Structures are given as structure tokens and as C-alpha cells.
Amino acid sequence: MARIISYREAIREAIAEEMSANEKVIFLGEDIGAYGGAFGVSKGLLDQFGDARVIETPISENSFVGIAVGAAMTGFYPIVEIMFMDFITLAMDQIVNHAAKIHYMYGGQINVPLTVRVPSGAGKGYGASHSQSLESWFVNAPGLKVIAPSNPYSAKGLLKSAINDPNPVIFVENKMLYDLKQEVPEEPYYLEIGKAEKVLAGTDISLISYGRALHLSLEAAKIAKESGISVELIDLATLKPLDVDTILSSVKKTGKAVIVEEGYKTSGIGAEIAAIIAEECLEYLNGKVVRIAAEDCPIPSSIALEKAVLPSVDKIVEAIRKACFSYE
User: Fold this and answer.
1) What does the pLDDT look like over 189-218, one tens digit per residue?
2) 61 is catalytic
3) How far is Cα 275 from Cα 11, in angstroms, rounded to an integer?
4) Is 130 designated active site?
5) In whole angstroms, what is the distance from residue 85 CA to residue 253 CA?
6) pLDDT range class, residue 1, cuts 50, 70, 90
7) Alpha helices in the chain (DSSP H)
8) pLDDT confidence of residue 326
9) Cα 215 versus chain centre, distance
10) Which one, of 213, 138, 173, 168, lies nearest residue 73 by Cα?
């Protein structure tokens, strides 16, 4: 049986189901208790599980992520909420130097089943220090998995898998998706980490995206279709490990690719995918590989300027046409 719930509710359900199933699952973060979290994800969890498992922390990201790393090393399954993805920079030492490497440094004797949830992205005029999409930083760090779901169904299934994964996982939630609603099964389910989804089947060009940018890409694909361009749209869902087979299979079929992300363009997710395409299937290309991303500048507070630096439907449509007609 399924019902329609929001992205926010899907994430809350995933946390509640895993905390109910395993008393070793604990939840830490700022204002996640009585207040219910900065974006309302954790409302009701304190009443349901108590303050021994829903743990309010001081404003000290490096400290409470460090506590979670230690708890994970001793058999717990901590879920950490970072209020804004920008603030995860304060906990980089614990995540990149410790959580990501401990399994390797101790010869596989210790696992770190840590899930770090991070609301990312712009669109609300929050400004330069509350609007970034920094997922590419963590894709670059060996030892971490990175997930960025685009809809409630995948958010719930992938978060439940992340919580049970023996490795540290960065779980990226674009804050503009929290109110997005979709039909989601009532029964518990898990989705495999590392699998992309073909959202649209097409023959002329591969459009590769994830998170909120996936929805902009879907709108752009519909506009392109009116011009007679058949778009194959791929939702990556997991950024590391990347589903390279699905990407290459699509590009080999269409011969063209546009990659869309909300993160910065330089050394971004699109740069990595473009390099993989160049390495693995250059001979199949008959058009340019084009990247659409945020401009390489701080995210403005002005809504008008913010829109100007972010990916948009118009920019994606233009990129599709540029890729399709670049060799004509």
C-alpha cells in the first residue's frame, strides 16, 4: 500500500523506522529535539524515542560529529544532522581525516557506520554561507559514500540503506525538495546505494543530473522534446560510488551528453563525469559534452542574482541544443 508524502516526511519515516528496528541507531544534531530541526525533518522523534537517543548538541559541529564517529566505532549507528551543508566545513577533520579513514587505518577491524545528513543548495536567498552544494568535496575523499536523492521515494529507501551501511555516508538533501510530494510505500523498503535511475528514455542526447537539478532537467527535456530532441534523463541518486555503467550505456547510445548540477562547475560532479566519458567512450561521441552548474562565485542573497548564478531550465535547454548541434 502506498500514500503520498513529502520528501521531509519520507526522511523522517526512514529515521523512525531504523530507530525502531535497532536500539543502537541514535540521532544527534542542533535543535533536532523539541524544535524538530531547522527544516522540520525531526518533529516528533524526541517524543517517540527520548533524549537518550535523540540527542541535542551544542553549536559545535566538529565536536558532535567526533562524538558520532566514536559512537560508530563502538557499535552504534549514529545519524548526524548538520543544520546547513555550509556548516559541515567545521567538521571536515572528523569526517575526512577520521571517519573516512579509520576502517583502512585499522586494517578493516573497525567500521564507522555513520550517516551525516546535510541540507544543501540555494533558492531561498539565504546567502553565501547558507546556500552551497559542496558534495563534490566529499566525492573527492576516499572512504566516503555520497548520496543525493531527488524525490521522496529514493530519499527514504536510500537513507535506510545508508543508516545500515558499515561505511560513513554523506546524505545530501536539497532544501528546496523538502515539500516535494510523491507516492511512497507504507511498507519498509531499502534501495541499493550506487544505482542510477533512467527517468526518461531517449535517443538523441543523455541528460545526467541529480537532486533538485534533476527536476530542472526534466522540465528542460520536455521543452527539448517540443523541438524534436529526444532526451534520455538519468538520475544519479548516488554520487559515490557512481553508476558508471548506466552513464556510459546511455552516452554510447545517444552520442551526446549534458551534465547538470547545482554545485560549482570547477572540479564538480560534472567535471568527473565528463572525464569518465572522455576516458571510456570518446569514440561514441558526435557532439560536445556540456556542463551546467552554479557559477564559480559566492551564492548571492539577492533572489535575482541568486537565480542568475544557479542552473535554470533555460540554461539546460540551451545546453541541450548546443550539444546536439555543435558538430553541424
Assistant:
1) 999 999 999 999 999 999 999 999 999 999
2) yes
3) 33
4) yes
5) 36
6) confident
7) 7-21, 45-49, 61-73, 92, 102-105, 135-139, 152-164, 211-226, 244-254, 269-281, 303-309, 313-325
8) 66
9) 13
10) 168
CA distance 307 to 299: 9
Distance CA 190, CA 164 (A): 10
Main-chain dihedrals φ then ψ at residue 195, nearest 5 degrees: -115, 125
Nearest to 299 by CA among 157, 115, 121: 121
Among candidate residues 13, 30, 61, 197, the one labeled active-site is 61
250-261: per-residue pLDDT in tens? 999 999 999 999
State the sign of the Cα–Cα–Cα–Cα dihedral 52, 164, 91, 310: negative
170 falls in which pLDDT band (50, 70, 90)? Answer: very high
Query: Does the pLDDT at position 241 exceed 90?
Result: yes
Active-site annotation holder among 103, 130, 215, 261: 130
**Residue 78: Cβ within 10 Å count:** 25
Q: How confident is the model at residue 327 (pLDDT cuts 50, 70, 90)?
A: low
**Residue type present at position 242:** L
CA distances from 305 to 105, 125, 167, 169, 318 (A): 45, 9, 39, 33, 20
